[in-house]
Amino acid sequence: MADIIISNNDLKDPSIDDMINLQKSLQPQGGEKVEDVKTPFYLNPIFYYAVAAALAGLSIWAICEPYIDDTVPDTNNIPFVGDYLLFGPVAGALSLALGIVYGLSNRNLKQAAFCGVVGLGIGLLATMLTTIVADILFGITQNVAVATINVPPGGFKEGEFPFKGISFFILMCGRGIAWSIISMGSGLGLGIALKSKKLTLNGLVGGMIGGLLGGLFFDPIGRFLVPPHSDAWMSRFVGFLAVCTFVGLFIGFFENISKEAWFQMVKGPLAGKHFIIFKNPMRIGSSPKSDIYLFKDPDVAPTHATVVKSGARYMLQDENSEKGVFVNGRKVEKHVLQPSDTVTIGETVLRYHEKQRGS
What we know:
By secondary structure, the protein is of the alpha+beta class. Helices cover 50% and strands 13% of the residues. Strands 2-1-11-10-7-8 form a 6-stranded antiparallel beta sheet, with no helix packed on it. Strand 5 (305-310) and strand 6 (313-318) form a beta hairpin. The longest helix has 39 residues, at 109-147.
């Protein structure tokens, strides 16, 4: 075997240090053992998104309902405008609530305010387009439903609901599809605010599925629980609540199942909470602008460390912090994260997890 010759230039090459650090990071290390903790239900995104979304739906219903009169025909309304004045506030409030609760779950008031405001704007803007699409699709399904109605020889009695059987099912589906289109805009704001494609996609898919399921509640309530020619407040109350709650539930659900790599705080003020690695790079520090915000810890620098994707792995880097970054009890500058690695930054301890990779 030939001798390996290392020149003086090789010793001065900074890439050699990087390679050595990477090699060391792949070796198992000792360190203080920290027990796993369970995630409290209130730190699960399925819970806090659903609660925030439900409150948004109830708030918009309470604000809008006094101004809705079902006894007045809509013949004087400008096409799409009347619907936008209803759909826009729902989507905007829903997106606002999701952004705020995301920041509050991290105890980051600045992040809550920023994500909420961006979410509100995105929700209102997106609904300007989705209202048009939703109205067109609902109009088509409504015409199909009318075409399937079997009109009795003497016609319908006054106040009789004409949609029954297959026609009623088509009408329900059409309204569900319309709310699915409307709700897709409400799920985009958080991902756009955080500049994350993953969160944007989760919001899009979760919003559409949640809106579809929630939209199916409107017509059954109006058909079976509301007397003919009466105010449909109950239908809107249940419908708004169902749409918003389902949107929050499914956005949280897809956030949970789509995560590939994440930290769990096992020691610190948010013990049990999962911090999903949702963009590249991700910053960890005491600054409210950090993606993982470690607050009220004097040993944590504003940008203490970053997580960078390196090929199929994630690398943790110390950003020249004064107190350093420790992985499994050893101080590191760069470290390729391995499942179950324990990361200590200041007084906070995080455990790294990732989905099992296919063989």
